[in-house]
Design goal:
Two copies of one chain form a homodimer. The first copy, chain A, has 316 residues and is an alpha+beta fold. Chain A has nine helices and 14 strands. Chain A has two domains: 145 residues, PurM-like, N-terminal domain (60s Ribosomal Protein L30, Chain: A); 150 residues, Phosphoribosyl-aminoimidazole Synthetase, Chain A, domain 2 (Alpha-Beta Complex). The C terminus of chain A is likely disordered. Strand 3 of chain A pairs antiparallel with strand 2 of chain B.
């Protein structure tokens, strides 16, 4: 490994609290061995999720401050763990940097990532560093745990179940629109404050029949539940909780919300772990998704809404 | 996610044996959920390792056949699990592909990776796919398990321990030299046949005081053990088991051997799990590494040998 990369790893270890601070608790061994050693609670299963972010495809360095790129990187992984009803334990980061990315950018990136990690009580337990031929590349792995057999899967939705979402949707998309019209600073605000719904996910164990996080947009993520569960869905347009400034299309297809979308046959409280929960529709037999408007008119809802929506804008 | 990527994921799921074949056993849920769910043996800890491979930095598409790129990707991760004394459970792959990489290349890549996975009884349980702005990029994560408190770390070597290596070293470096001189086909043969020393690693639980896999070269990997354990080392040049055609420098600094390097205060058999084990030196007090030649002359051994060696050749 070249000297520059060794030095960077030494700096990351220091920022992440090594030696001493980080290993301990559930992380028995972290950065500095062939593999990290993680200790799960007895009777728990391991959860593993990976998320790849590429400059020019998933973000632009001139649009998103480095601190938010780092935060978003971990946010995506933590949101996946939340959607499984899990508790996060540790993160692993593979980072490839092109020449010309300075130490300040890298330090800010890690500050954003490590601050969110600390907030959720997890450590950066490993990863890899390389030089990139072009563009920043970050692949994050988050490992978590759930009690045996109680992970929230996408495949358990049944006809008759209610469809619920946490929080509000379309906020990130509305922000991007304002930015494109020269009235804002891009998505930075949403990604800088959105929190992974870890506590909500834990509370949904035994309550939700299926669960996913809203990262690609409500319509696309609902289609994943429908596909994996072999069911269809009806959404009530009026019921979808749009964020301030977000049109219905943004709430339906916008993405990057980091809320949870779940189904349940049980009665679900209006708030879970302090977060608003809204009934937005019902699981039905079949394979199709439908949207019913305020006047009762029903039209088929495509999962491709997001791609269509996205194709009109630059990489964010 | 664009259509091309969705189709690729569907093809990977099929190649990896989904649905049905893969989940089961220790992998409760795999590709197709927010996170994979892995079930460890009771009383075991989780091991997690990541390895990033970039075209142009770690391999060249015109030198290494796609099947060997895929095999090497997983081999690196499995070798890390072996070095911890672990049993592998599942692999996760994040893959970014530039335009112009055809379906045939991708299929061959996965064939190489999945064949090695099958051989070691593990499944591809998740990952991510994206378009790369330039060059193929593959980040592999391997998750394994060891009995609680028995992982082989780099940090346990003590003055007086013997230093051992499995198999033979320098084979990959010798192959590369032959290739550079127009007498071979690059590293393909070694990477196509090298096996991660999983069984040896398991047998070393309670025997080795420290362990690492030889991926960067004996001198560099030994320096990692010395740093993490706070010790020095003396190697006997005559004892280092060089592969056929490999000079001493290649065996000392070549890298990509995928053998295990370990220390032990106990008596170690000449073969473990069918693999030759050679005593090559001794752990000493201090921080330095020394090489003693056949005539008894002692010179300091630098961990930088590999970088120096590597700087003379093209990316492999």
């Amino acid at each position: 490994m070249p000297k520059a990369e060794r030095e960077l790893i030494a700096r990351i270890r220091k920022m992440a609290g090594y030696p001493g601070a980080a290993p301990g608790g559930r992380v028995v061994a972290g950065i500095g061995d062939d593999a990290a050693v993680l200790r799960l609670k007895p009777g728990y299963e391991a959860l593993v999720t990976t998320d790849l972010m590429l400059e020019g495809i998933h973000f632009r360095r001139d649009w998103l401050p480095p601190r938010d790129v780092g935060r978003r990187c971990l946010l995506r992984g933590l949101s996946d763990i939340a959607a499984m009803g899990g508790e996060p334990i540790a993160a692993f980061l593979s980072l490839a940097l092109p020449k010309g990315v300075g130490q300040e950018w890298v330090d800010e990136f890690f500050k954003g990532l490590l601050k969110l990690a600390e907030r959720h009580g997890i450590v950066l337990a490993g990863g890899d560093i390389a030089q990139s031929p072009r563009g920043v590349l970050a692949d994050i792995v988050v490992v978590g745990q759930t009690p045996k057999g109680r992970a929230l899967l996408r495949s358990g939705a049944k006809a008759g179940d209610g469809i619920y979402v946490t929080g509000e949707l379309g906020g990130a998309a509305a922000e991007l629109r304002r930015s494109q019209e020269g009235r804002g600073r891009g998505r930075a605000r949403h990604v800088a404050v959105a929190e992974p719904r870890i506590e909500v996910g834990r509370a949904l164990r035994g309550v939700a029949s299926a669960c996913i996080d809203v990262s690609d947009g409500l319509s696309t993520d609902l289609s994943h539940i429908c596909e994996e569960s072999g069911v269809g869905a009806v959404l009530e347009a009026e019921a979808v909780p749009a964020a301030r400034g977000a049109e219905l299309e943004m709430a339906l297809h916008g993405g990057e919300d980091y809320e949870l979308l779940f189904t349940s046959s049980r009665s679900v409280p209006e708030r879970i772990a302090g977060v608003k929960v809204t009934l937005v529709g019902e699981v039905i037999r079949g394979k199709k998704m439908w949207l019913v408007d305020a006047g009762g008119r029903k039209r088929e809802l495509g999962a491709g809404g997001w791609e269509h929506f996205r194709s009109q804008r630059s990489p964010h």
